[in-house]
From TrEMBL:
PROSITE patterns assigned to the protein according to its UniProt record, in alphabetical order: 4FE4S_FER_1, 4FE4S_FER_2
Reactions catalysed according to its record: (R)-lactate + A = pyruvate + AH2; glycolate + A = glyoxylate + AH2
Annotated EC: 1.1.99.14
Record's keyword annotation contains Transferase: no
Biological role stated in the UniProt entry: Component of a complex that catalyzes the oxidation of glycolate to glyoxylate.
UniProt source species: Dehalobacterium formicoaceticum
Record's protein name: Glycolate oxidase iron-sulfur subunit
Pfam families the UniProt entry points to: CCG, Fer4_8
Domain (4Fe-4S ferredoxin-type): residue spans on this chain: 11-41, 61-90
């Protein structure tokens, strides 16, 4: 029987899983069930395991912990569930429970958590990865974590010719007030893995207004997802204070913008931070969401076939679906691929924790991209971009993967 420690977490878990009717609607839509075909990887299976754990039917052992960790947290089950059972939230609470029980989430996640809490460590990592790419040793870095460098200039030269580089930007019809303070949230993944794309984001934002560049800390998603809740709250409070004077905070990482928009919910019961957290979350906008809101028009329309992979944290996490597609339709010949909103298997560190399963999920995505006959697949998330780069290489480079800031 489970001991009283972690009683609040267990009560929250019980309240959510009790809403599951075990109907099985989640089974056919779960990306993991689609490649693994085992009940325990589905939302229904995971909720049954969580219910049994809370009620004392099973012990909190390593096997249960492994099942809890084998989840993409993509939210597909939640959006398709008739009762909207928040299985992703259950899994995060379960991970926190196991971390509290064992005195931490495990060595790997402790190390990752420490690195992502330290701005100096992030900058050093970004520099190291940049050097590895420069000397062309990135192929030796596992899991595609030092992706091949593809820049906006490469894109324009290949698909638009030299003239495209010299063309002037189109006039933008914005609704920005001259006094509106726009800040850029620099995500860890964008800074370390795709600094060129991050630079393009800043360039675009600066065509609209003088963007504030703040030395922010991690959004905290890797921490809240892996049993490092205290670190998450510490990071959230720092970011709330750092962006206190900004009116709008734009992020080009779907995971960051989704997490920051949801920070208010985590402080709902904290009288000291509740109002500040709510004000902060209301400021957050994803890049494509912001650009469409202010009337931004892509600088060039090129004769190139483009499709879009919708990050889980962008579409399901924020309801931002139309905006990136609207931008891409103005940037090239847009093609909607089949299952554009299905997870690519990246999900933070999932693709390194369970590479075989992640690759099986990714293979389905690759086939859908190839079937669309798109030359470029675009996304708005660095981990998705890692996966899509791997898919492009495996498929013989029939397409290129790029961040949305590089093509608009």
């Amino acid at each position: 029987m489970i001991k009283p420690k972690g009683e609040k977490l267990l009560n929250e878990i019980k309240e959510i899983v009790s809403q599951c009717d075990r109907c099985g609607t989640c089974l056919p839509v779960c990306p993991l069930f689609g490649v693994k075909d085992i009940e325990k990887v589905s939302a229904r299976g995971k909720n049954n395991i969580a219910r049994a754990l809370v009620e004392g039917g099973i012990e909190a052992d390593g096997q249960v912990s492994d099942t809890v960790n084998m989840c993409l947290l993509c939210g597909t089950c939640v959006s398709n569930c008739p009762n909207k059972v928040k299985t992703d939230e259950v899994m995060m609470n379960m991970r926190q429970y196991f971390a509290d029980k064992k005195g931490g989430p495990g060595f790997k996640y402790k190390i990752i958590g420490k690195i992502l809490k330290d701005r100096t460590a992030i900058k050093m990592s970004a520099g190291s990865l940049g050097l590895i790419k420069k000397v062309k040793l990135n192929r030796f870095v596992p899991y595609g974590m030092a992706p091949h460098k593809v820049t906006r200039d490469d894109y324009l030269k290949h698909f638009g010719g030299p003239a495209a580089l010299k063309g002037s930007a189109l006039t933008r019809e914005t609704t920005l007030d001259k006094d509106t303070k726009i800040a850029y949230f620099r995500g860890c993944g964008m800074e370390m893995l795709f600094p060129e794309a991050a630079a393009d984001t800043i360039r675009i934002l600066n065509t609209l207004t003088k963007v504030q560049l703040i030395d922010n800390v991690c959004c905290g998603l890797p921490h809240i997802s892996h049993g490092l809740q205290n670190d998450f709250f510490e990071l959230a409070k720092k970011n709330i204070q750092l962006f206190e004077n900004a009116d709008v905070v734009v992020s080009d990482c779907a995971s960051c913008s989704s997490t920051l928009k949801h920070i208010a919910a985590y402080f709902a019961d904290d009288p000291k931070w509740r109002e500040a957290a709510e004000n902060f979350s209301k400021k957050i906008m994803s890049l494509s969401e912001f650009l469409v809101k202010v009337g931004y028009k892509p600088e060039h329309h090129l004769d190139v076939k483009i499709t879009f992979h919708e990050p889980c944290h962008l579409g399901r996490g924020q309801g931002v679906k139309k905006q990136p597609r609207e931008l891409l339709k103005s940037a090239g010949n847009y093609i909607e691929m089949n299952e554009a909103d299905v997870c690519c298997g990246g999900s933070g560190t999932f693709h390194t924790d369970y590479p075989e399963i992640a690759n099986a999920v990714l293979d389905k995505k690759r086939l859908n991209i190839e079937a669309s006959q798109a030359q470029i697949v675009v996304t708005e998330c660095p981990i998705c971009l890692i996966q899509l780069n791997k898919a492009a290489q495996k498929g013989g480079n029939k397409f290129q993967a790029m961040h949305i800031s590089q093509v608009i």
